[in-house]
Amino acid sequence: MKKNVKNFGKVAIMLLLTFTFQLSTLMAQVPQSFSYQAVVRDAQGNVLPNQNVAFRFSIIENSANGNVVYSEKQSATTNSLGLVVLAIGNGTPQQGTFATIQWGNAPHFLKVELDVNGGSNYVDMGTTQLLSVPYALYAQKSITDTLWTLNGNDIHNNNIGKVGIGLTAPTGKVTIQGDTSNVLFEVRDKNGIPV
Length: 195
Known about the structure:
Layout: H1 2-27, E1 34-39, E2 52-61, E3 67-77, E4 83-88, E5 92-95, E6 108-115, E7 123-129, H2 134-144, E8 148-151, E9 154-157, E10 163-165, E11 174-176
């Protein structure tokens, strides 16, 4: 009986860790794109309302003249004020994969090219460094605001309190409470068979 209680404790902790990781993964999803807005003008500086236009965006690493790690094309129609609103990362990729850009490894720059006639005769509109936005600054804070510690392939939580699943006032270090008419706790092997 004592062995079953000990095994149940191990299984309960594994379930808690699995649940916590899945929940944190769901909560940590960030959009794989960022907003871009521009007012499109012709060579004389006149706004181009309701105009089909085409953009080519390139993400460049390290410097404005560095390596292109991602590029994409997008077509859009300006509104009545010549404004176009796009999401970089949602276009047609030409090089690289947006989701694999290593944003934290080096400075990144955005090169914008435009064809005001909607074709592929692009004119270089310039390159500028991408800087942090409040959303990213807040996300950076989450790196240090965690109760979990990674040590090689192991993870642990130095929580000095109690953890409850299915109740708000746990009585033990880990307490699981549920309806006994259903399975309260279950661990399955890789084939889906309860262990």
